[in-house]
Design goal:
This protein has three domains: about 240 residues, 3-Layer(aba) Sandwich (Rossmann fold); about 270 residues, Aspartate Aminotransferase, domain 2; about 100 residues, Aspartate Aminotransferase, domain 1 (Alpha-Beta Complex), CATH 3.90.1150.10. The protein contains 23 helices and 28 strands. A seven-stranded mixed β-sheet has the order 16-24-23-22-19-17-18, with helices on both faces. It has a six-stranded parallel β-sheet with strand order 2-7-1-10-11-12, with helices on both faces. Strands 13-14-15-27 form a four-stranded mixed β-sheet. α7 runs parallel beside α8 and α12 runs antiparallel to α20. The longest helix has 25 residues.
Length: about 700
Amino acid sequence: MSIQSGFFITGTDTDAGKTVAAAAVLVSLRAAGIDAVPMKPVQTGAFISEEGMHSPDLDFCLRMAELKPHPEELQDMVPYLYEPACSPHLAASLAGREISMERIVKAFQNLSHRHECVVVEGAGGLLAPIAADRTMLDIMGALALPVILVARPGLGTINHTFLSIRELERAGLNLYGIIFCETAKSDWGKIEQDNVETIARMGKARVLGRIGFIPELAKPCAPSGLLRNVLAPDLFRPDEMLAANSQGQTAKATIREMDRASVWHPYTRHSATREGFPVIARGEGVYLFDTEGNRYLDAISSWWACNLGHSNPRLVGALVSQARQLQHSILGNLTHPRAVELASSLAQFFPDTRRRTLFASDGASAVEAALRVAIQYWHNRGESGRIRFAAFEEAYHGDTIGAMSVGYLPDFHAAYRPVLFPVHKMKTPDCSACPAGKSRSGCEMECLSLLESVVRNNARELAAVIVEPLCLGAAGMKMYQAECLRKISELCRENEVLLIVDEIAMGFGRTGRMFAFEHAGIDPDIVCVGKGLSGGYLPISAAVVKEEIFQTFADEPRDNTFYHGHTFAGNPVAAAVAVECLDIYREENIVAKAKQAGNTLSTRFDAFRDVSGVTNVRCLGMIAALDLSERRGLSGTDRARRICSDMLKKGFLVRPLGATLYLMLPLITSEALIAETVDGLLDSVSRV
């Protein structure tokens, strides 16, 4: 059963008549032979009887539809019940509780798996708060149902209805239609008729029908089945409503067929496409949801980018707000406020805040820009022979030509080896497989002598050393000590070589500090950022460069202008989201919370140290990784693929790196979910 099998009933304001409308839709669907049931996610103004606490709105719908659900199913129909008749967020606060979006979604899924259609009634209007930073609109977005808006027909309804329509549009929700409901005795005249016609015309909205005032509903206990007797059986055209849901099911099948025929999936084997993939319809918090209603904990933060999870209301709000003002403007001989704010904000994270931000679109583009800056910097200074780079042997910096040259991985890039430029390769300081052959206890950082020889022997032709700080991601989460990074920085300074630190994957709290280089107490010449810069919501990246480097690109007396850029570099919408993202980091202490969560992850991950077939268990902040050895005739790589497949069936999105399994959970993941994820992985590793 699809998560879209139903409708969400909301109102322009409190007492717009949405409970009556919800019951009427429910009765109409059931009269047409559709197995529809009601749901009220949050009920305030509940009453207590001998049987316990009751939802008056849900009870009304059940009575009108003549339904008597099992007590366990009733809990899914109304997950949250509060006695005070006030805003949901206040009612929950007074009860000392929080309203969990996950619980509401799970309750809806339970109902939708058992019934054809679920008619969900909201509380108050669209923006009625359910928590400090969430509204009823967030529940609507989480369920992703077609919306039916209930409005009063009388004076003032045009403004209220248009504002509600606008909010639905901003949230990207589908307004199926509007029901006009009379909640008091009135004469239907020219004003009411014109209101309906004006809303339909100017709001470009479909009017589903009108429910006139029904005096019997005002009685304390309206007769069972009353609506079924007084409403026209085809008032809401239930056949069309059912067709709307059927079209959604057909569309999903079409998406899969079109996917197989037209999409080239990155880093995906052809053989993996035969059965098709989950079609992800939406994200909420740490979860992704597919079109079948299945929920997956995003244990890789959607390729290491969505550090703040999905559908963060502040990030979505920043995106929508900026999109209404300015969608795109180039930064060539122009500027705009969001790019200025973002560049200024980024500079504050560095020991020396005199920095210039060169915007790009994705991580590889930022690396390419950094490489070009380094080469031209030396050219500007009259040392045009300094055109080479030094990099770790197993580094990964992206898939463009320059990025592949400094981050060459044979499994990924072998076909392009002939077109890549030469790079001085340094032994990777992998503490789990020491290049000097030493154990951890006997380590005296001999690997640095190997690095030192590369830099000292080639300093005159080196433009820069480029490194992934503390952890080489795509190489299999290979980790090294902060002291080693500090020594590399000192080595570069002593030999007058620029240091480029690629923080695209490790930055923005992933390692327990805002940037991984902070662990080493250094201030790199150029820092590449991306992925988490916008919380993963839009593509934006940057090379953040020291001021003294920037100053060499002046055009007087000689033109040293940096003729480099991208069409969408510093795009206003992406920049606005990134500005808001950095504000969230500061205001909500994300890095400190991530550090604490990382400690929990590390403690939990210790359980793998005694598991047969597992080696090199390691953690760094909110990164946890292990390697799989051959077992029962299966290579470590084959085992990793099978384990990830098993995890997906259990609702966890994990991807392998060869024989390496890793977790890169969103930084907002709770300790309980960290434990649940690690336990799930432990079960799969032990069993598969």
